[in-house]
Design brief:
With 359 residues, this protein is α/β, with parallel strands linked by helices. It is 42% helix and 17% strand. The protein has helices at residues 12-23, 44-54, 71-81, 95-100, 102-122, 159-178, 200-212, 233-245, 262-271, 318-324, 333-358, and strands at 3-7, 27-32, 61-65, 85-88, 130-136, 182-187, 190-191, 219-221, 227-228, 231-232, 252-254, 260-261, 277-280, 287-290, 296-300. A hairpin with a 5-residue loop joins strand 14 (287-290) and strand 15. The longest helix has 26 residues, at 333-358. The N and C termini lie far apart (50 Å). It catalyses: GDP-alpha-D-mannose = GDP-4-dehydro-alpha-D-rhamnose + H2O.
């Protein structure tokens, strides 16, 4: 049985990866930050199953309090767990928020990565433990070529991208300096029904569900022309695992090779709830109207613009497809949007039922 340590296990990617590795027969240890509120919703299915397994002394999923910015804590956890694989998914990952919290973003996304690599080195685990670093397409920022691949020069356009570029290079440096199996997965935008509600795709799918059920009037968005390469997070965690199973430690772009605008995402999401959108105006004056009723249900708010915008991101998954045998389009863009909207329709219906119970 292999042992894996996942930082950021309560996040979208962490929860899917934990499920994936448990199905592969791993013993999984997840790191969670201490919080005064419950923050393990995405792990509820695993925790329910593990509670049953614990009665038989057969539990394979374990949670530990920790924080990647705490050097001594990182060293202690890795020393106790002795993992075969570490997946560093912990991050302040909201690009817009990184402009407001640049120092914190650097501490978590940059120093946090260093702490993990240094702990593996100090503990003498460089021959045993493989390290996966969750990198990002935001490294490319002001893109230098289209599509972006492993050799494309970086040009980050946010504190998040800059912090992640440190994480990328320190991982590569430790690989070359200490002969560690330390690799970067350069993930392009990947979404799911578990995406945080402040991220644009989940904001759209949730708004479509709420507007369709009369719980919300409209949704305000930023740049509708932004082009992104959107994939399904559940598919992407498989590629993370495949990267660590590869014979040689190498960096890989994880992407679909397709690009769509935010506007397209909006149209598809509302189509899935039976609403056709008609667009009028341009720029900050652009509005999306419910064609059947004439009501404005989408508008543009400049407060959601970034100080420096990334206009387009399109990844080239050829290397991952060729060397790892990974299928980048297992879940299509259209299917991804459908999955998210269906999940949010159910979420809104459940919230309404609970509310009525207490009215």
């Amino acid at each position: 049985m292999k042992t894996a340590l996942i930082t950021g296990v309560t996040g979208q990617d962490g929860s899917y990866l934990a499920e994936f590795l448990l199905e592969k027969g791993y013993q999984v240890h997840g790191v969670i930050r201490r919080s005064s509120s419950y923050n393990q919703e995405r792990l509820e299915d695993i925790l329910d199953e593990e509670a049953a397994n614990a009665l038989l002394n057969n539990g394979d999923f374990h949670l530990h309090y920790g924080d990647v910015t705490d050097t001594s804590n990182v060293i202690r956890l890795i020393s106790e767990v002795q993992p075969d694989e570490i997946y560093n998914l912990a991050a302040q990952s909201h690009v817009r928020v990184s402009f407001d919290m640049p120092g914190y973003t650097l501490d978590v996304d940059g120093k946090g990565t260093l702490n993990i690599l240094e702990a593996v080195r100090i503990l003498g685990l460089t021959e045993k433990t493989k390290v996966y670093q969750a990198s990002t397409s935001e490294l490319y920022g002001k893109v230098q070529e289209v599509p972006q691949k492993e050799t494309t020069p970086f040009y980050p356009r946010s504190p998040y991208g800059v912090a992640k570029i440190y994480g990328f290079w320190i991982t590569k440096n430790y690989r070359e300096s200490y002969n560690m199996f330390a690799v970067n997965g350069i993930l392009f935008n990947h979404e799911s029904e578990r995406r945080g509600e402040t991220f644009v795709t989940r904001k759209i799918s949730l708004a479509a569900a709420r507007i369709a059920q009369g719980k919300q009037k409209k949704v305000s968005l930023g740049n509708l022309d932004s082009l992104r390469d959107w994939g399904y997070a559940k598919d992407y965690v498989e590629c993370m695992w495949l990267i660590l199973q590869h014979d040689q430690p190498e960096d890989f772009v994880i992407a679909t090779g397709e690009m769509h605008t935010v506007r397209e995402f909006v149209e598809l999401a509302f189509n899935h709830v039976g609403i056709e959108i008609e667009w009028t105006g341009q720029g900050v004056e652009e509005k999306g109207t419910n064609k059947a009723t004439g009501e404005v249900i989408v508008d543009v708010d400049p407060k959601f613009f970034r100080p420096t915008e990334v206009d387009q991101l399109l990844g080239d998954p050829t290397k991952a497809r060729t060397l790892l045998g990974w299928n980048p389009t297992k879940t299509s863009f259209e299917e991804l949007v459908r999955i998210m909207v269906i999940a949010d329709m159910k979420k809104v219906e459940k919230e309404d039922r609970v509310k009525k119970m207490f009215d």
